[in-house]
């Protein structure tokens, strides 16, 4: 069986600094794969390189068995791979209505029955037609993130890249977005690659996870290993302590 | 013991084109030299409560209260000059993101000295020594070097420590921390919190921690106030959080995914109109 996403020996450098240092990941179709790591560990760079937002210098990338280079990608690629960003305030065009935001990917990919698709996409993320002609500044953070998810799902992708999709949101809104993502994955049989620093979220959403540090993958473990504490990386342990909240005795 | 801060029926409202928006609607609590957490979602009025105490509410907003007193001082009647003197010396505030709340064109050391020299008659040499001692107190290893750096040259965690140093250098009695760690890396969050915890305990200060993260607040504070739609829905000691009575508090606790539990889908927070009434 071919992997949904296969990254071999990927190298991304910025002015000689290796942000991504020969990283390899193999993700079978339908899996939800988590990436954790501290700031600067290269976890977002990995997502960006896969999405085509950062060029990689060497290594290979293939999606559903098709190889892609560091620079130009064809339309088919962007149809299959979509991304949701961390900051819902920064990722929507401030002067476009929700309707226009959702229209653009449909036009780019030459879809028919645009009107029905936009309506369906809004319904799917739980917003309804009332939101269709609003601007993003008229929406709350959670609603914006729903629009960003709708925009990603509207071209019917196979792989969704999620870069900390809930870390800019309130804890209470987080649950709603996570449920929405999980439902979408179940309905469409999507493959998720999810970056987060919250082990609780990764454990909830993912089956396997990779721990990154200084541009390398330190270890790849199943999510169940988190619960049973079967991991070796120091950073994973730190994250685990952090996810349990502040404790006076530990400090 | 006399309370440090008394808040009785505090209301903050903003006149807008579409009518009066009531952000805080009748909040009452007293604070001694303890750690109090205020939790709620965005828009619950938790930050505006903190800002009203600090005196940072925008000019067009309307603040009323039966009583809003810091020790013996009536904060509502105090002149702007008195409030200005209090800010930094008696009440201090730590904001969320050091990237936006530090002055970008002034070195960290200068900013700390500025606070000191605003409130105390002190020579620049002595102010410098105090600033460096304070930077060391927030566990910045190379304080002399960091003293000379600009905010953009330090990491988020370091910036937040510098901010704590700046706020505590005049020895305030009450510290309001509005989401002090939300902009930081998870592992750095705990470091910053433990520094804050130690300084607050050593100096016997009162602390109000404003956050949306109930788990964090409950592990850090002695007492927690839960706010919803501008009102306090529940107040309880952190230790009793598991026995919270109000469905909103229970919802806030339940909606977090944790290791060790496996719930699909996650329980979603309910918001009922009658809670806001």
The assigned structural class of chain A equals alpha/beta
CA distance, first residue to last residue of chain B: 34 Å
Total helical elements of chain A: 9
Average predicted local confidence, pLDDT of chain B:
90
Count of DSSP strands of chain A: 10
Low-confidence stretches of chain A: none
The Cα radius of gyration of chain A reads: 18 Å
CATH superfamily of chain B: P-loop containing nucleotide triphosphate hydrolases
Query: What is the approximate shape of chain B?
Result: globular
Tell me the name of the CATH class of chain A: Alpha Beta
- State the shape of chain A: globular
Broad CATH class of chain B: Alpha Beta
How large is the share of residues in beta strands of chain B? 15-25%
Q: Topology as H/E string of chain A?
A: EEEHEEHEHHHEHEHEEHH
What series of H and E elements makes up the topology of chain B? EEEHEEEHEHHHHHEHEHEEHH
Number of strands of chain B: 11
What is the fold named in CATH at topology level of chain B? Rossmann fold
CATH homologous superfamily assignment of chain A:
P-loop containing nucleotide triphosphate hydrolases
Question: What do these coordinates show?
Answer:
The complex is a heterodimer of chains A (251) and B (277). In chain A, strand 1 and strand 2 form a beta hairpin. Chain A starts with a strand and ends in an 8-residue tail after the last helix. Chain A is globular and about 50 Å long. Chain A is 36% helix and 25% strand. Chain A has a single domain, classed as P-loop containing nucleotide triphosphate hydrolases (Rossmann fold). The mean pLDDT of chain A is 89. Chain A is built from 9 helices and 10 strands. In chain A, the strands form 2 sheets. In chain A, strands 6-7-8-3-9-10 form a 6-stranded mixed sheet, sandwiched between helices. Chain A has 251 residues and is of the alpha/beta class. Chain B is α/β, with parallel strands linked by helices and 277 residues long. Chain B has a single domain, classed as Rossmann fold, CATH 3.40.50.300. Chain B is built from 11 helices and 11 strands. Chain B has a 6-stranded mixed sheet, with helices on both faces. In chain B, strands 1, 2, 4, 5 and 6 form a 5-stranded antiparallel sheet that branches. In chain B, helix 4 packs across helix 5 and helix 7 packs parallel to helix 8. The two termini of chain B are 34 Å apart. The chains are: A alpha/beta (251), B alpha/beta (277). At the A-B interface, helix 6, helix 7 and helix 9 of A face helix 8 and helix 9 of B.
């Amino acid at each position: 069986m071919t992997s949904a996403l296969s990254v071999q020996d990927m190298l991304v450098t910025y002015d000689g600094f290796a942000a991504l240092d020969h990283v390899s990941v193999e993700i079978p179709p339908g899996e939800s794969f988590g990436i954790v790591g501290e700031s600067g560990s290269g976890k977002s760079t990995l997502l960006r390189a896969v999405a085509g937002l950062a060029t990689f210098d060497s290594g290979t990338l293939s999606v559903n068995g098709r190889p892609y280079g560091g620079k130009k990608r064809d339309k088919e690629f962007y149809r299959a791979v979509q991304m949701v960003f961390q900051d819902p305030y920064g990722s929507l065009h401030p002067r476009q209505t929700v309707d226009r935001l959702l229209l653009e990917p449909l036009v780019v990919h030459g879809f028919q029955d645009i009107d029905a698709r936009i309506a369906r996409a809004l319904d799917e993320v739980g917003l309804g037609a009332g939101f269709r002609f609003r601007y993003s500044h008229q929406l709350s953070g959670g609603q914006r993130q729903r629009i960003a998810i709708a925009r990603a799902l509207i071209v019917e992708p196979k792989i969704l890249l999620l870069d900390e999709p809930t870390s800019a949101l309130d804890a209470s809104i987080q649950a709603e977005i996570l449920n929405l993502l999980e439902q979408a994955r179940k309905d469409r049989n999507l493959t998720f690659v999810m970056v987060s620093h919250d082990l609780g979220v990764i454990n909830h959403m993912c089956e396997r996870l990779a721990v990154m540090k200084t541009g390398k993958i330190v270890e790849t473990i199943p999510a169940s290993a988190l619960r049973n504490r079967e991991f070796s990386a120091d950073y994973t342990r730190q994250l685990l302590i952090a996810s349990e909240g502040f404790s006076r005795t530990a400090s | 013991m006399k309370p440090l801060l008394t808040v009785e029926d505090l209301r903050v409202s903003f006149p807008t084109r579409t009518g009066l928006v009531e952000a805080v609607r009748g909040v009452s609590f007293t604070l001694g030299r303890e750690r109090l957490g205020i939790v709620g979602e965005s828009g619950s009025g938790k930050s505006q409560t903190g800002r009203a105490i600090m005196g940072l509410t925008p000019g067009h907003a309307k603040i009323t209260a039966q009583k809003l007193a810091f020790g013996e001082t009536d904060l509502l009647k105090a002149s702007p000059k008195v409030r200005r003197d209090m800010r930094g010396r008696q009440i201090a505030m730590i904001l969320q993101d050091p990237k936006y709340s530090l002055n970008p064109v002034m070195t960290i050391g200068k900013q700390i000295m500025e606070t000191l020299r605003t409130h105390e008659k002190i020579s620049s040499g002595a102010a410098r020594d105090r600033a460096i001692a304070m930077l060391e107190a927030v566990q910045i290893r190379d304080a002399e070097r960091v003293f000379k750096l600009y905010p953009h040259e330090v990491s988020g965690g370091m910036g937040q420590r510098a901010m704590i140093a700046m706020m505590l250098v005049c020895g305030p009695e009450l510290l309001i921390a509005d989401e002090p760690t939300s902009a930081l890396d998870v592992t750095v969050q705990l470091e910053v919190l433990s520094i804050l915890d130690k300084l607050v305990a050593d100096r016997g200060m009162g602390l109000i921690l404003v956050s949306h993260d109930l788990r964090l607040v409950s592990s850090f504070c002695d007492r927690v106030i839960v706010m919803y739609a501008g009102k306090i829905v529940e107040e309880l000691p952190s230790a009793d959080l598991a026995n919270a009575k109000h469905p909103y508090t229970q919802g806030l606790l339940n909606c977090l995914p944790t290791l060790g539990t496996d719930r699909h889908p996650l329980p979603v927070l309910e918001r009922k109109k009658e809670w806001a009434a």
